[in-house]
Amino acid sequence: MSTGSFEIGAEGVDAGQIMAEIQETVAAKMQSGAYAGAQLARAERFNLMNMKKDENFFDFYMESLREAVYVDINDFEILERRAVFAPLLVRVKRTLWSLLKFYTYRLWSQQNQVNGLLLSATEEVDRKYRDKIRNLEERLAKLESRLPPG
C-alpha cells in the first residue's frame, strides 16, 4: 500500500535548506525582473473556457506574446559560485562562450525571425476577423433597423 509521498535524501544534505535557497533565489530574480515573461506563463494557464468568459483574455494574451516574442541574444554575465578554481572556471566558460557565440547567435536570430513572423501572422488574422465581425455586426444592425417594431 502506498502513502502517496516519499523522501529522497543523502547523508549531510539538508533538503529544507536547499529549498529555502531556491525560493530565495527565485524571489530575488523576480524582484530584479528576470522573470518578466512570467506574465505569459500565467496567460498559458488559462483554458478555452476562461477565454470564453473573459473578453479581454485574447488582448492580454497578444500583449504577453508581443512582450516575450524575441529571444534575448545579448551577452550574459558568467559567474561561478564554487570558490575553488573559480577564476579558472570562469575563464574556461568565457572561452567556450566566445567560441560558441557565433552559432548560438545565428540560431537565436533565426528563431527571432520565426517568432516575429508568427506574431505578425497572428496579429493579421486577429485584425482580419475583428474587421469582418465588426462589418457583419454593422450589417446586422442595419437589417434589424429595417424590421417593423414588435
Distance between the termini: 70 Å
Count of the separate structural domains: 2
Principal-axes geometry comes out as: elongated
Number of strands: 0
Q: Can you tell me about this structure?
A:
With 150 residues, the protein is mostly helical. It has 2 domains: 15-68, no CATH class; 76-150. It is 70% helix and 0% strand. The protein has 5 helices and no strands. The protein has helices at 15-32, 38-45, 48-53, 57-68, 86-146. The longest helix is centred in the C-terminal third of the chain and has 61 residues, at 86-146.
Summed up:
With 150 residues, the protein is mainly alpha-helical. The protein has helices at 15-32, 38-45, 48-53, 57-68, 86-146.
Architecture blueprint of SSEs:
Layout (H helix, E strand, L loop, with lengths): L14 H18 L5 H8 L2 H6 L3 H12 L17 H61 L4
Helix pairs in contact: 2-4
